[in-house]
Amino acid sequence: MSLSPFEVSSAALVAEEDQSAEALDAAGGILGRSPLRLALARLRSDRMAWVSAGMILLMVVLALIAPVLSSITGHSPYNPDLVNGTDTFGQPYGPGQAGFLLGTDNVGRDILVRIAYGARISLLVGMLATLLATVGGTALGLVSGYYGGWIDALLARLMDAVLSFPYVLAAIVLAAVFGGSLPLTIGVIAFFSWAAIGRIVRGQTLSQKEKEYVEAARSIGAGSFRIMFVDILPNLIAPVIVLGTLLVPVAIVFEATLDYLGVGVGPPTPTWGNMLADDQGSAGFGAWWFWVFPSIALLITTLGFNLLGDSVRDALDPRTERLFAMRRKKVAGGGLDASAGAGTEPLSGGTEA
Amino acid sequence: MTRFVIRRVVQGIVTLWVIVSLVFILFFMANPDPARLLAGKSATLTEVASIRASLGLNHPIWQQYLSYLGRLVTGNLGESYKLHEPVTTLLGRWVQVDISLAVGAGIIWLILGLSVGILAARRPRSVWDRSATVFVLTGLSTPTFILGLLLLYVFFYVLTTHGVSIFPGAGNYTPLLTDPAQWARDLILPWLTLALITAATYARLSRSSLLEVLGEDYIRTARAKGLSERRIVYRHALRAAITPIVTQFGIDLATVLGGAIITETVFGLPGLGENVVSAIGREDLPVIQGIVLVAAAFIVVANIVVDAIYAVLDPRVRLS
Hints:
heterodimer; A: mainly alpha; MetI-like fold; disordered C terminus; B: mainly alpha; 2 domains
């Protein structure tokens, strides 16, 4: 009988725990660790998690220092500067020319500064929309699964409708009607994202509410609200965290898409999406730096969150198949190979978006 | 089966009615009097009034709504405010682009996605599997318009500047019946853009679905009987693993048919997607209504068809 991946990885973790734990083990004692601490330890030992965290951190730092970059270089992210930002023929500077690290766009604005400001919008929209969608989807999923009956019928149909609707079309119609703005963009993205989480939470709630602990809670007089949010919710938190992490890149791409189509936050605010749209129309492809750098920024961000989501999924639920596995830093003899047979294990339905 | 279809069709019609009504209300809220916009800035009040009268916009909103629904039932989608052509004619012209897009891209993404998925599932954790996950991850992380721009840059701009003009740039579309070879040449980059991104989902889906089936008891039985691995995978496992992929394929195909907004915008293809964006820009309500209706109808129909196919493919599923 081979070890399950869970046992393997905790065995590996014991090996890398600090001295006191080893001392305890040597003394025959067992150090109790909560599931959260186990998951965090697993995450810490995961190289891919560090790589992805680094990618995200890079973007966060870029977003934070955007005003600093702007004041050091003296380049405004908003105002066209045809005098300093373009050469004597009115052509934009390429990367590295005239003190513009990533070049300038066709009206002489510093692309690096604009990318840094764009990072603020992308991260803000990505995080806020995901937060709204996660909280909303979890609450509605819990209510739907717990109460059942007509509430469930209504909410479940609503989730199906939201999930099956061509959301880019709906989003641009909404943006056209109400006028593109940051709050609307966040709202629209959250509205079209909550159902994915809601459906999973609903399914999990349906099975959780039949468990004994719910019956026990009810028998000691706990109300529905308490059972849902205090008793059941902690048992669903793992898939919710995983889905939430994987929703961030989706939201960021969604925002960039809306801006690319001209119905998102809109100019003069620099966003990666409208930088890409401007650049395609005006200068054509000769000035490759117009669109290559915003694209790279966008790709680093989405890739970072996708990889992190995958690592988080692995840390919280080691039975699931990894999307992109990298060998762990310290693996006790045999290590992960012991679980190679687990490759044929089905993906846990709970974390598949 | 008949009862199932009838019920689903009725449900679908209700869904479409809700969507059409929502769009109607939304645009009325945003702009209660489109006549003023249509007449232009220099129009006199009488001109505005005559436009209003000719479009029936002088009636109360509920009357406009009812007459709109009445016309809809007879298949009359009205006339574009700006293009001065019946919306049905326009839709008929534009949807050809989307059919061309969907057919070509669908074939590519299905073949590519399934091959990558099967390759990965047959040898889990091999180099093939690792490469497949890189493919999936890249596809999931790349926005469609970035891939489109990249393909245009490499295959149109770079090649053309080096004297090799195989692929046309954005804004080219030749109908199939005019010149089939040119049709394919114009569409190959849009096809690849749509297909490469979508194939990532299919690779992941087919890999996990196939892995799940390969773990079933009847597969072990098949192995015990001494069947070849090829026969097991392609005859026994794939048949059961294909059902979720069929579902996904139906919905994705319908979504593209209703307008591949981003791909069409990047490549300047005159399909439903690009035209809904420009119709929104000029507040051409009848056109927007028409495109939303067609896009939603494709999805509704696809859902019904997919459920029916599902039951045929997997006898364990009962239509209810």
